[in-house]
């Protein structure tokens, strides 16, 4: 028998805190206790093997009859979720797996915080990096969980095999996951948990990305037109991302053109680190200006001064451009770029094919010498910083895993590139200005110590009707894993679009940056005002938005009966978004997003206080468990006593957002709960201070923003003071809804001092 912190292998069973999770465990499977003060009840799984090779697959044991949720790479760049109850349901390239080792369905019925004689038991499997190898999980037709181990270099064949998968368990799924990742952080010492990273300030402001507005046809003039268009509508972006289309690129004479509709030409390579003629003052195609003041700096300076823009980011691929850096090109010889041809792993090959990967594989990629890549990044980023650029969106990151041959393997190559990239970011962009994109592989996740923002799913596809519900569900479930490493970014969207409100509501509870990719003149300002305050700031929730506990193992895209609930926290309340995502999903047979139900029906679920997992942390020690639920669309205030729930019914592609506010009982018996700016999606994000004088019946609030502020009060207040001035207010006797209006403040990020005398 081998044992490690609540995990044991004995009599052919993997037992976790008393519950059997895997059976028929192979005799070469070992358990190693996590060294030091492990934060999780957990241990490492490994294999004893005499095999060598750059790719090996080891069966572990059978998984049968237990619900699980995993996130796996359905294509080279991105993950999505899969639910099942046996090993053969686990896809190739699974990078995170959570198993319900003991039934938690009682939670659906009772809905209490930690109130069960035998609480649910959640077991997390994290395949990690060991030496020059990367482990992932997959299932086989015998229902066995397998470990697939790859180096990505035919010459790298020897491995130790003792620390391949970290297994952790406990009764709180979110704590188990967080503590498991933190234990792996201590073990590997190659990455940092999200909580230890500096978040760039751009997350707190509204932004605009040029991609869907212009694609690679973006110009300096187009950027100016876009910003002016928003400003005219009174919703000013405070950051801009100039996406693909600003760089100096070109095809080799022998390359095969690869440009689909609304995409880049993947055959292009970088030919200069400076901008192309479209971003030079009076630039002419085929010519280059040497004066930096006439380059990118001229447009960045102008838009920052004219539009009070705080941050400007630009796009580049981790290898410079899709096709890399052209070898031997004038001015970039010292990067020692050489042609390389991607070789993707069998697991990736078995999932969705990709036009970009196909083109890069055909035309090759000019790969900068890993020993020179810091010089490349530093020269690129220092030039951008000198032009007023504050950060970069670094795309196509997973391509590195295909280029490990001759470089010691995929893990070693990725780590060299990420270390160089982060060193350059640290030197040139002091606000930690980087967004990681197309980067859903563990080679990168377990090798990044500074990057704090990561695109959380495949793109927003404005013209693909199957993609919208899939997008929301994928981001939510991917965030369960990705949110431990970085703040997930839900991507841009169009404010003027049939699904715009659906996307906007999801981003409001995601804790993410909020930015759109509208074409100039094509905006829904009424929608944007639910997300953005007049000063350009947003009411950002505090955490990565994740599915509620009772949604972890249901399939809100395919099962025809489940709603998706996503929870998050504000300073003094919670927020839950509820979405009907039924009808479309990634098809494992067709290997693409498909609508499988053209007319999914109405779906009903419930919402309750315990959906907000961390609500007790902000509710205070004397909280009784009672809450107010305020529905954004319905405009209803509902008092929900402890351990009770409220039914929610949504038609296909409908949503609702609920503010979940703990109720405070004062000495007089009066009950009070502040809701927030009720016209905003995340209304509770406006409350920045809350104090009760229980004896006198005074409630003191600090509130950011403007518009109609709402609160629940069981009694009509005596008066409301705003910055010491008595204010008019409305009180609705039946519902207890108290409202008053805050004007637009003169100062940016101003906080009103409000006193309510009950």
From TrEMBL:
Q: Which reaction does it catalyse?
A: alpha-D-galactosyl-(1->3)-1D-myo-inositol + sucrose = raffinose + myo-inositol
Q: Which UniProt keywords apply?
A: Carbohydrate metabolism, Glycosyltransferase, Transferase
Keyword hit for Chaperone: no
Per its UniProt entry, what is the enzyme's top EC class, as one word? transferase
Q: Which domain of life is it from?
A: Eukaryota
Q: What is its EC number?
A: 2.4.1.82
Molecular function as annotated in GO: galactinol-sucrose galactosyltransferase activity
Stated role? Transglycosidase operating by a ping-pong reaction mechanism. Involved in the synthesis of raffinose, a major soluble carbohydrate in seeds, roots and tubers.
The family classification in the record reads: Belongs to the glycosyl hydrolases 36 family.
Q: What is this protein called?
A: galactinol--sucrose galactosyltransferase
* Upper lineage: Eukaryota, Viridiplantae, Streptophyta, Embryophyta, Tracheophyta
